[in-house]
Amino acid sequence: MPIEIGQQALDFTLYNTEQKEISLKDLTAKSNVVILFFPLVFTKQNLSFDLLSYFNKDVSRQYDSLYEQFPKFALKGVTKRSAFVINKQGIIKCAEILAEANKIPDFSRILLRKD
Prior knowledge:
This protein is α+β, with helices and mostly antiparallel strands. The chain has one domain (13-41, 50-113): Glutaredoxin (3-Layer(aba) Sandwich). The chain is built from three helices and six strands, in the order ββαββαββα. The two termini are 26 Å apart.
């Protein structure tokens, strides 16, 4: 099911780097949330925030961010580079799902929608 701006975000629970369960509902209770998906672990990114991790790709599927077949390496089940802004009411305010893994989301657009 395609993700659309204005729809209720699908809740999920994942583990952070300290192996603590964190849900989207927990996060949106405190502030707006930016969700970033990126393909393959070796993708070069300098992140200054906590990562939530999963291995079964359920959340990528929920957010329509999974390649059926990754173009470069003929791999299946690779996450698409994507960005979403979810407000405190759990509504999707911004969604960008990129078809090409070598592109990055428009972070200036995301910053405008994060408040």
